[in-house]
Amino acid sequence: MSRALIVIDVQESFRARPLWQRIANPKIADPVNRLVRLARANGDLVVWVLHTEPGSETVFDPALGHVRLLDELERPRPGEPVLHKTSHNAFTTTDLQRRLTEAGVRELLVCGIRTEQCVETTTRLGSDLGYRMVFVTDATTTNPIGDLSAEEIIERTEAVLRDRFARIATVAELEAERGASGR
Length: 183
Hints:
By secondary structure, the protein is α/β, with parallel strands linked by helices. The protein has 6 helices and 6 strands; from the N terminus they run βααββαβαβαβα.
């Protein structure tokens, strides 16, 4: 297996925040599920990552019950790791890199919540670690920050990652390339 899909922070914690009302794509589970089905159909590793802040008494505190995958998401299958991170990227506070190395993975598809934060940070670090990175833009989402709309943030993220840290792709492009509809 040379490819893995990393699903980052697509979790109920975000829906439990008032900011969810301003999220660019509240149906983020739909494109993520298409990617998961595509990855499974191609024999790729699927890795689920959840952000946690133990003891914080926020929606990211596992003790409050929101640190779980969105209810609409496909459920992890046996052999698909579910990692818990406490940093902005999926590598630093997990054993993700060890798992990928042991599985012979060289290419990562990334998707998830907070386009410009955890998904972008994971993409940059993955690139620095030598992985071929594919940032699946329509399977990420975020909310407005300050004067920037969510759409502007996503556009900016694509611009800074494109051809430097990652290839930018859509779910439909990946489905077409891999010969699977994902439906």
